[in-house]
Structure formats: C-alpha cells, structure tokens
C-alpha cells in the first residue's frame, strides 16, 4: 500500500508538474499575444472616437454595441448578441450646444447640457439672473420674476492651485497597506455616515426638488449649474429623468467652473451679464429596452462546458466626452482578453462569456438585470439553476490604469488561488491580493447574489482628477501599455478559471432582505 | 581732529540708527497695510473679469486702461494719463465663436480664433479636409482641391498622463542653486542654439509662410490648428498681422488638443468628419497708437524729486481668457504697491512712477517705446537727459506667485542693497538675490539702456502648465496671499529706492550696436 501510495503520489506530482508546465507555456503565449500583438488601442478607438458618447439608449451606445457584436463575431466568439436586460427608458443626445456671454464683453462658455434635459426654445438671448435661494421661504421673493430668464444659482466653490499631480500610480507602500488588516470598524468604504450630515444632505436634496419645481412653474428659459473641475475640465451628470413618462424638465447647462465663477463674480458685484444660447437635444423613445452585448467561447470539456467564467465592463458612458476611461477602457480590455484566448487557439474547458453592460451609470442596471434573469433575485435570494454553474465574474472599471492586483470582496478563500495566478505578472507590477471590498461597479451585481465577483486593483492615473464623468474623458487619456497589461492578466485569469478543477470558492450566501415593517 | 572725527562718526551712527529705526517702522506699516488691508484682489477683479481680454488696442485693454487711470487718480496719484508710446496697429476682438463637428456625431469644439484672424464667411458647414504637407512640393497635389474647405493640418503631438503637479513653488534647494555661480558657458538663458536646429526652424518657418500663402490662394474657408495644452486648457497666439496695411488672412482656429486629435484620428482612419462653424471677429483701426498708463507720486525732497523710481507690469494680454496671471497679476500688484505708499501718507523723496505697459505680448513695445522716448536709443546709445534721473525700474510679470527674491541682471553692485531690503521679508519667503538674468519681459527695455531694471523671482505656480497665454488664465488662478505678499515687498523696495541717499548702482553702459556690414 505504501508503495502504491507513493506511486500514486509521484504520478499525481508528475501530472501536476505537467499541468503547471503547460500552464506556464500558455501564460507565456498569452503574454506574447497581449503585450506584443495587441489590438486593444484599435478597439478603444472604435469604442470612443468612432462611436462617440455612449449615454444609455443613445445612438452612440447603439453604434458601439453593434460594432462590438460584429467584432466579437470576427474573433470567432459564438452566441454573440444584444441581450435585453429589461426596460430602461429614453435615450438622449446633444444635437447642438452653443452658449456665450455677450456682455460686459463676448466670451464663449465651456459647458454641456445636463443629460436628458430639453432644448432651449430656439436660440435665446437675455440677462443672466443671479438667484440665491437656500430654502423654500427664499423662493417667494422670486415669484413672477423669472419668466423667460436665464437663471444662475450661485456656488460657494473656490478654485485652488494644484500642487499635487493629476495622475498617480500606487506606491509599494500603498499596496502593502491595502493588504494589511483594516482596523475594526473603519478604513473601508461604506462606513457609517455622520447622521447630522445625512440629515443636511436629505434636506438639501428636498430643497433641490422644490427649487426645480419652482423654476419650472415660473417658466425659466435656462438654468446654469456649477460643475466641479478645473482648467476647462468639468464633470457631467443627468439633469432630468430618462423614464418613459417623466415630466418635461427645464433646459440646464453644466458650466465649467471658470466660466461659471466669472459670471457669478460679475453678478455678485452688481454688474449686468447678458448671454446667448442655442441648445438642441433629442430624445429617443422607439425602444425603451436596455441591452447588454454578450458573447461566448464555448467550453470544450464535456463535463465542464455548462459552467461559465464571465468577464465584463460597461459600455455606456456619460455624454460630454467619449467615456474613454469610464469605461471604454474596461470594455476594450475585456474584448482584447477574449481575442487573445481565441487567437491562441486555446480550448477552454468551461465556457468563457463576455458581457458589455449598459446603464451602469444609472445604477448598474445592465448587470443587475442580467444577474436577475440568469442567477436569481437579490432581495428574496430565490436562486436559478444557472447560479450553480458560474465560477466567477471579473470586472474592470477603474479607468485606464494597469492592474496592480485584485480585491477579494471578503472572499478570502480565493486569495491563495489569485496569489498564485498573479505570480507570472509580478514583472508587470501586479502582485497585490486584498480581502477588501471595492464598490461602484458591476461586480457588485454578482457579489450581491453570492457569486464570486471581482474588480481588479488599478492604478488611479487621472481618474478622479480629470476623467471620471468629465468632458475630457477621451481616447487621449488611455495609456496603451497599461491596457495591454490589463488585457494580458485578465486573459490569463479567465483562462485559469476555465481550466481549474474546482470552481472559484464562494462566500456564504447573503441573507434574503425581508421587507422591513414600517 | 580725532575727537571731532569721533563725534562726527558717533553722530553719523546715531543718524543712521534713527534712519534704520524709521525705516523699520515704515516697513512694518507697509506690511500691515499690504497684508491686512489689501485691495489687490479687488483691483485684479476689475482688470480681469470686468475688463475682459486685453489684446493690444482692443476694447478690453481700453476698458482696463481707463479704469486704471481713474483708480490711480482716486489713490491720489498725480500726472495720471494714457501716454502714447508710438504706433502699434489694429485692435481686434472676438464677437462670436462657435464650432462643432457634426459627423460622425455631434461634438462642440473647445477652441479660439487666432488673434487678428478674420470672420468666417457667415456660418459655414463642410467636410474637414486632412492636409498633410511638410514641404513646398507636397502642396502641388492639393492645388484646386481646397476651395471653401475646412482644412486640418495634422500634428505629431500625443498627449501624456501627467504625473507631475501643475503647480509648483521653489524649494530651498532650487533657490540656493540660483545663487550659486553658474558654470562657465552654460546654465543661463540665451545660450547658443544648435545650428542644425536653428536651420530646421528657419526652414519650418519658411514653409509655414508658403503654406499660408497657398491656402489663401486656394480660397480655404477655415484652418484648424493644433494648440498645445491638456484637459481643455489650450494656448493661444496670433494668426495674422495687426499692421495697418496687413493683407487679409484666413479664418483660423486654435483647437484644444483633445478635440483636434479626435478629428485627426478619425480622418487618418479614413472617416468622414463634418463640421460647422460661425466665427465673427472685429478689427479696430480708428486709433492705431499704443498707450501706456502712467501715474506719479511726486517726490518731496527738493534735491531729489526730479529723480524717479519706476515700477510696472503689462496690462495687455492674450485674447482667449482674461490674462489674470499674464499680467493682470503684475499690474494689480503694482497698483496696490502705490496704493499702500499713498494710503500710509508716506512722502517719498524721489518721484515714484508707475507704468502699465501695452503690447508687451507683441515684443515689449509699450516699455520699449517709453524708454526710447524718455531715456534714449538702444541701438545708437544716444541718451536723453532723463537717463541720469532714473534710479531703478521694478517689474512683475511671472504670474501670480509670491516673491522669493530678485534677479540682478548681472548688476552685482545692487546685490548687498537688495539683500538688506529683503531681510524684513524673510518670514514671507523672500530671501534670494541672484546675479542671474531673466528675460521675456519689460525690465529688459530698461536694462538694454543700462538703467537698473529688475524682475522679481516668483514662485511658478501653474504659469507654464496652465495659465501663460492659455484660455484658462482667469481670476480663479490668482492666489490672494501671494499677490498681497508681492505688493507689500514691492511697496517697500520702491519706497526704499526713493529714500536711498544714492541712486541704485548701474552696470557699465551697453555698447552701441553699430550697423553690421553685409
């Protein structure tokens, strides 16, 4: 027995060594394809420059989706399709934007219509009205005075000279700190907020709603809103609802800080500011359904091919730029990862499925809808049969920065596996495995249902300072070497997940969220 | 004799001690007025936000000049006037700027007409034509193809993520290095340029002229030019001559790098880019004369009041913003310095004269014209009587940064004087006296004639990265504490110069520049 055991053990060791050797060979091939024969920037070009802004259900998103479907087919993926995830609402795009102040002198204004706000009533001209109101009683004094006016609601923001670089990469110290256990009760996202601050926030939000209703009732022609940012960079958002039955809103511009503050200073000093504007926006309501792009490399192992490994990023963006880092980067990387696997002729055992989500920006709608349809209900925790068949979901949505490691979302059992898988990429700067959570994007839709869902740790670059939701989130912001590195690592992770004997271990299932009695 | 000598010496020491004590008292008063009761930001607001862009001979410059004249009068200055310095040429301003590309999708373009370029022929629409030409022979292929076209001449520029802060202050090490003797034959501005590089530059310039002539002849509708910058910041210049008899040029836009590069990438990939634009610019030729704002605090000492101490900065700016750091900052500081002196009721012995120059941006014309009229001819070195009567000229034109010291322009004899005068401002960060030259602004007009002319060392802040000649050189860029510090130090320097027994020592007179035989 002893001898036999030894033989078996030796044979197992031999098999394991062969597997590791094969795996190393595949990893080297993936590295070569991903780093030396990359197509990731070409993909990024089509998703950004060629498709344009990709607001949910806009023509730009449709262009990108159609292009992605054709491209994935051309790689040899199967079952490539636009898969509906549910009802979203109206699409919207800018057909014309022009605004300038014309007195005390002429100055063209850097700004953008807020998403889903309507056109001005043709070209308009008029004095800018400074309306300082902080609470409901303040509004009374303006009753009857705002009809046809261009209204500026002041900000207390002041710009500061920046002595910190816009772009940054993680230092070794910062990465080490991410691995260290966080002190109890703090240090991670999602901590308790100060109740007083929450109350103030709620009150502010209430007043914003009251203000909007008041301005609508008074027949204001155009609202000017301060947009944070600096030096011509500004950040965009939505100004009205995309719902099918949403009441019409007012035209509203998000104005770059310098242009806004200049007008505000002049108005506060009692000077007359006159403005002209011409904004045309268009709504699209023929098809209110939201879609994800989905495609597969079918599994080759008869026992495992019904199991899947998923990877994805969101294809939708905000409207003032082309959403290069948020998140054409992630989509281009994921498309590149499946291209690498296909182009090497690898035959993964499990099915590899890519998904390019939509409506992430409005609340992870595309991935949540997909998860609800395929895997179960996040509230009741009633699961579907596919829930057992998915090994893991990998997401990339923190900009153009290269991968420095991975967040386990508290799934510590996955730690040793990923630590092993990162080893061949230490030379590319990816070494860190942290138990921590990270939030704000589509892996959470999977994690909410107990499916191993991961977001990689990425160098921040200019994500927070310049690109995330800004008017300057363009192709220029992408760093080719970083995207190539990310695609290479993800190709290897996805392939390793497909080949692994077991699926990726899971955390305990989250509890059903029972309705709370009120 | 010995006793007498001792008595005299003691008395002299006593007088000197009194003078120093008085001087210290004045310095404290200046500090209090400049740091605690400052008006510098109010002045800056009127020069920037209220006046607008201040291109030479534009209505914006005229507004600022008139306001400055009235303000200086209100401080109690005398002989305040607009003093003509010679013939400049036409003024110009933007009356409307609108441009967007409309295909493959709509995108409003951040750009500015180049200074002194004409209007488009009303609103125009058309395909953007990519015209790659590097030398005269390249142009032939485009003959007859460009009539009415919007032409984009490509750039090889690529944007990079910034890992360095936009703003910076001098470190103690950098300041120390400025004081250290520079190695022979290097380390200072104005070193010998590589002859091959110079030849390439000359050739390039020649080709630009040929290209412009060709495009004009072909009847191009609009030229799109790449403008360096990042994230919505771009830098402006002039695109045509301001001369009275200048031939008409073509409409030309300086386009922000992201918008330019996006169009270029689409065109290089063979895609159709369509554009619409509407540019109205206006020329002003009623008065071609250039003016400086000049005003005085007349001297109070019968023997010294004919002697002057000058201080100044240039009031003109580029056109895409309000020239806050270049150089409303310098003008506001100089106006504040004379306000401080007047408001304290000081009676300077020598006359203090402030000058706010114009047309600095086109070649220091305002200050050169002034120097030629008052002090002599920089070529022949034929001097005028006033040349002997000026003690020094102090200039501020390196942005919003606080003063860290002063450049001696090689006038080493002035070093110990300035070192002494800076002592009370060590606590404000101003300590450095360097023998080095600095160039590029109006103190050079004085220095060229052997008059002690100085520019202060200022923290760079965002001058090179964001503000100098950019579309984002606005009031927001000014740091109040820095401008207050500068005004305080300059008030003290100017007052000290007016009170000093001797005038500031001079360098040897430059040699006349004899005509070179060809």
From TrEMBL, chains A, B:
It is found in: Endoplasmic reticulum; Golgi apparatus; Lysosome; Secreted. CDD domains: M28_like. Residues 1-21 form the signal peptide. GO terms for molecular function: carboxypeptidase activity; metal ion binding; metallodipeptidase activity. GO terms for cellular component: extracellular region; lysosome. Residues 292-493 form the Peptidase M28 domain. Keywords: Carboxypeptidase, Endoplasmic reticulum, Glycoprotein, Golgi apparatus, Hydrolase, Lysosome, Metal-binding, Metalloprotease, Protease, Secreted, Signal, Zinc, Zymogen. GO terms for biological process: proteolysis. It comes from the Bacteria. The keyword Secreted applies. Homodimer. The monomeric form is inactive while the homodimer is active. This is Carboxypeptidase Q. It comes from Pedobacter cryophilus.
